[in-house]
From TrEMBL:
Belongs to the PNT beta subunit family. This is NAD(P) transhydrogenase subunit beta. It comes from Nocardia aurantia. It is an enzyme of class 7 (translocase). Keywords: Cell inner membrane, Cell membrane, Membrane, NAD, NADP, Oxidoreductase, Translocase, Transmembrane, Transmembrane helix.
């Protein structure tokens, strides 16, 4: 039976890796997800076989029923526009589960002191690491969910210069608690209150680390928390001698770490700078450039329709505003009308547009936009110079030319879409408020830029009606 368990685990790991490979492209992502799900089902079956002599089947079945009841409905019915929140919530659940497992092991072994054959160092360290990182991931994900759901303000929430010293103090307290527990594990046990203190300090640290991080950095934060959850799961697997948790956790941790690094590079920001917080403040800025008051030029749906109908190429630049307005289907209908008139339509996707990696791709794919029409930043930036109209839908910071031209800008050096190089730019926004980075966008005041104010879905719908009349 042990050999069967190992064989099933090996097959499951192979399916995990093969499924993850499928997630590298939109055309294979669904199949990759299904393959990985089969692998997880095999891992669960293998785990059941390995614990076949347990007396806790009622609790196990009850846990499965509760998990399915809580997990399936949001996964099936959550709208694509709210997918970042769902990712943050599921990620947090994973981290919280690991923290609870570590606490349960501590209680079950009375402070690790009653582990058979005396606790080894790696078991104790792995358990405590899982407890700390899992708790940080859970509570950090709670804050990320709150900001994405707009329950909490998207701007940084901190205590100024005391923020980092407080975080260091909390981390030091958690480590000190872990040391006390580790020392007690080799003796007569240790009070459970030390474990409670460790979890509480780690929880507060998770809250305090994510609260000062603004909405502009949220895609990187989600990826980082995902990596932490994976590492904590791998550590828990070491403590429990569970091969499935080790391998799955390391896959999640490694892929999350790589993605976090790529996302940070896409924003020209270091991961420590993101964790330090303070970027992504939000709030309107009334002036633009050298203190000079500039006036944006408004346009109408009819004028926008005429410009695009007689263009050779239109590039649509989606942003979070499109997601909030749920305008992806309206955009697809508008693009179809343009293509019927002989206009070539492409979509420029910035790596950190939206609130999670691939957010815009998911929304556009839901509206059945061709994958071939979605172009990554490096592939599309050279196209703007020969584009007649660039249609910006709710994107702000990722189109800000100050990132290239203004060394004093907070986002200077961040790679952006070269929207300003198009012959004409039409920006769909509710108002002149700045984006999550909290800085003004000179693009909006450019001579060749016009603003179409209003809800993105309604604005696109109005343009579509005008196109039908042409």
């Amino acid at each position: 039976m042990d050999n069967l368990v190992n064989i099933l685990y090996i097959i499951a790991f192979a399916l995990f890796i093969y499924g993850l490979m499928g997630l590298t492209g939109p055309k294979t992502a669904v199949r990759g997800n299904q393959i990985a799900a089969v692998g997880m089902a095999l891992a669960v079956v293998a785990t059941f076989i390995s614990i076949r002599h347990t007396n806790n089947w009622i609790l196990i079945v009850a846990g499965l029923v509760v998990g399915v009841a809580l997990g399936v409905p949001p996964a099936r019915f959550t709208k694509m526009t709210a997918m970042p929140q769902l990712v943050a919530a599921f990620n947090g659940v994973g981290g919280g589960t690991v923290a609870l497992i570590a606490w349960s092991e501590f209680l079950d072994t009375q402070g690790f002191s009653r582990i058979p054959e005396q606790p080894t160092v790696h078991i104790v360290i792995a358990s405590l690491f899982a407890a700390v990182i899992g708790s940080i991931s859970f509570w950090g994900s709670v804050i990320a969910f709150g900001k994405l759901q707009e329950i909490l303000p998207g701007k940084p929430i901190g205590i100024g210069k005391l923020q980092q010293p407080l975080n260091i103090l909390l981390f030091a307290g958690a480590v000190a608690s872990a040391i006390v527990i580790g020392v007690g594990a080799t003796g007569d046990g240790v009070s459970g209150w030390w474990m409670v203190l460790l979890l509480v300090l780690a929880a507060i640290l998770g809250l305090m680390v994510v609260l000062p991080i603004g909405g502009a950095d949220m895609p990187v934060v989600i990826s980082l928390l995902n990596a932490l959850t994976g590492l904590s799961a791998a550590a828990a697997g070491l403590a429990l001698n569970n091969t499935a948790m080790i391998v799955a956790g390391m896959i999640v941790g490694a892929s999350g770490t790589i993605l976090t690094n790529l996302m940070a590079k896409a924003m020209n920001r270091s991961i420590p700078a993101i964790v330090a917080g303070g970027f992504g403040g939000g709030g309107a800025v009334a002036s633009a450039g050298d203190g000079e008051q500039k006036q944006a030029k408004a346009t109408s749906a009819a004028d926008a329709a005429i410009q695009m109908a007689y263009a050779n190429q239109v590039i649509v630049v989606p942003g979070y505003g499109m997601a909030v307005a749920q305008a992806q289907h309206a955009v697809k209908e508008m693009a179809s009308l343009l293509e019927a008139k002989g206009v070539e339509v492409k979509y420029a996707i910035h790596p950190v547009a939206g609130r999670m990696p691939g957010h815009m791709n998911v929304l556009l794919a839901e509206a059945e936009v061709s994958y071939d029409a979605m172009k990554e930043m490096d592939d599309i930036n050279g196209e703007f110079g020969r584009t007649d109209v660039a249609l910006v839908i709710g994107a702000n910071d990722v189109t800000n030319p100050a990132a290239r031209e203004d060394a004093a800008s907070p986002i200077y050096g961040m790679p952006v879409l070269n929207v300003d190089q198009a012959k004409s730019v039409i920006v769909l926004k509710r108002s002149m408020n700045s984006g999550f980075a909290g800085i003004d966008n000179p693009l909006f005041y450019s001579d060749h830029t016009s603003m179409l104010f209003g809800d993105a879905k309604k604005s696109v719908g109005a343009v579509t009606e005008e196109l039908k009349a042409l």
